[in-house]
Description:
alpha/beta; 11 helices; globular; single chain
Amino acid sequence: MKTVQAPIHSWFNATSTAAEIAADCDLTGKVAIVTGGNSGIGYEIVKTLAGIGAQVIVGARDMDKAENRLTGLKNVSFMPLDLADPAAVDAFAAGFLAEHHSLHLLFNNAGLWRPPRLLKDKRGYELQLGVNHLGHFQLTGRLWPALKNAGGARVVALSSIGHRYMGVRLDDPNFEKHPFDTMKAYGQSKTANSLFAVELDRLGQEHGVRAFAVHPGAIRTEITRYMTTRELQTWVQRVQQQPGRQNDGFKTLQQGAATATWCALSHQLNDMGGVYCEDNNIAGIVPDNAMAGYGVRSYAIDPDIATALWQFSETVTHVSYP
């Protein structure tokens, strides 16, 4: 049964933290992977899961940073992972499968935002699409046996309200027919994250694998590293001016990690999936021309587009989910 893309009576709200959501949970004996879990909201997710007993493996591109942040954390280990490099993705998955039979939680959290010019991954695809979507598509496919073996797994894809900047352009993913716009490219990758959850959930239900897409909210993290001072100031002002946002429009890291944690742990989401979530709830659908800082556009949850993107991704990555 398809989950309706509409808010439910959630026990939490926009100001809830990951720790509050996990307070009554016990993940002893469970295994989780968090990509990019050595910084930002990924780090908060890692600490939260490990604190309630999960064995957490972090995939990190910068191993020095991972060692500095993660060494000494109980129940946490880390392995190198470069989502822009297919060989590195395969190596990470092979290393995990050699040690683990099951994977209960997968957080496709690592991401790239607004590089200043058109860059490409090692497949030859625009870097934001390559890192944010294609690398995670490949990784999830390689880990598919462990997800099925879990007897009930959840995959959480970190999307963004930035999906509003563009849908997926499968006939021109590299902006060869259109002028390159880094925000549109980011939007394409975040729409792809949402569509990935839609199709993965459809395919995974019979195996007990459910998937969710998450907008974590506006958070000041290292993802802004490519922005100039002026661009950062403009972004902050835009966030602060969004209607319906509390305080200054920004969330703390713990609040930013909350919705992903809620999607992974909440009993309210049992037998649900394939939806875009925000503020610890399933998001409502907004018109495709809406620029509000909340809600999901219909093209980001369209099942037909999700299937087309899936077929495109299989062709590009040479990974088919058995």
